[in-house]
Amino acid sequence: MAKRNADLLIVHAAELLPCSGPAEGIRGAALERVEPIADGALAIRDDRILAVGPTAEVARKFSAATTIDATGRLVSPGFVDPHSHLVYGGTRHEEYEAKVTQRAPARRLDGGIRFTVRKTRETPDDLLVEQALGDLDTMLLHGTTTLEAKTGYGLERDEELRLLRLTAGLRHAVDVVPTYLALHVLPEEYADRRADYLRVALSGLEEAAELARFCDVSCDPLCFTFDECLRVGEAARATGMGIRVHADQFGDAGGALVAARLQAASADHLDYASDEGFRAMAEAGTVATFLPGVTLHMCEMTPRFTPEGLGDAEKPFLPLVVRRAIAAGATVALSTDFNPGSCPTPSMQMVMALAARLFRLGYAEIWNMCTLNAARSLDLAHDRGSLEEGKRGDVVVWNVPSHGLVINRFGVNLVDTVVANGRIVVEKGRLKGSRRRTPAARPRAAVARA
Ligand SMILES: [Zn+2]
Known about the structure:
By secondary structure, the chain is an alpha/beta fold. Helix content is about 35%, strand content about 25%. The chain has 2 domains: about 120 residues, Urease, subunit C, domain 1; about 270 residues, TIM Barrel. The protein has 17 helices and 19 strands. The strands form 3 sheets. Strands 1, 2, 3, 4, 5, 16, 17, 18 and 19 form a 9-stranded mixed sheet that branches. An 8-stranded parallel sheet has the order 6-7-8-9-10-11-12-15. Helix 8 runs parallel beside helix 9.
């Protein structure tokens, strides 16, 4: 039998991890299983996976100009990171030190989202793009091949639309899925004029829908109410955008419920979501996306400083919250929430490490949540998130032989090779044919000074 032509073969993987499952995502007890293929192989032509299976089978049927020998290595799908705020100006590292030490900073520091909003407004388009591309390089080097990227540091209609245009215009090997964050936080100048601000948010939707795949609203005691989010969410749906919700991060505002009502693709954070909310999400097919990087970076699971000494932890015990979401039947995913304030890590490997340590999740659960379920959260599970015939050629070859080691070791980048959309874009841990030698050569601070 003549062999069929492929462009790329990856053969002899110690473990090939398909992460395959149903289109609605992997739920319940199935989360605890991955079925690695020993001595695994896959074939890619153009941007698509042609075949996945044992090397003996795949290599018998296909030949290719390029073959990667993955002996001793794990091969997995590229990560899908379904929640980030990619485009922003300035950094918040000084504010962070003051927060963790509870010491007054040496000089007065502006902080919080409003600081980032001001810095973002001050930063010209080309610098914002340059910084975002640098962060995408870092994400790619760490195994991410699809990234959801939302606006949110404009707060005013024209500035949010500027950030959306920049986000949607990014050209990079990481596939960027743009989201318009219509309701993030209420600007101070609207403190007594909430209805006026809703009109501002609504006025941007038509234009946003031309560029954004999703519209996001924040339903939280510190942000917007159930009714406000429902109103903007329904208007956004009418424009054709999918819906995402920042839900119940600082208290139960009914965020999970409004997400289900809006048939949102995903509701994220969910620290205080109710069981009723999780059940409604499961029924509506809304993915529950948890963000362990925020839990770590905001020190939310350690006791807080009080005038009397140490108090309680800031948040409910997150391992139980995640278990409640799984028990309710929701599809659960994980993400970085990459942003300058509450979680500056661009690495899904870090998210995996934290999901085990902070959320007490098992290796198989974590892999399923960072691949197929994360793709489901972007309505892309039919196209990517697993190594299956017909799916996008997004593949990572690792420097370790098993999927458990990626999570067990932490603090180092274990990626050897990344294939994105069928092309080898990272080789031996370095960007191949990229605009940049290494992303570390141009960190944000250096770009900002330039
Ligand atoms: Zn967010």
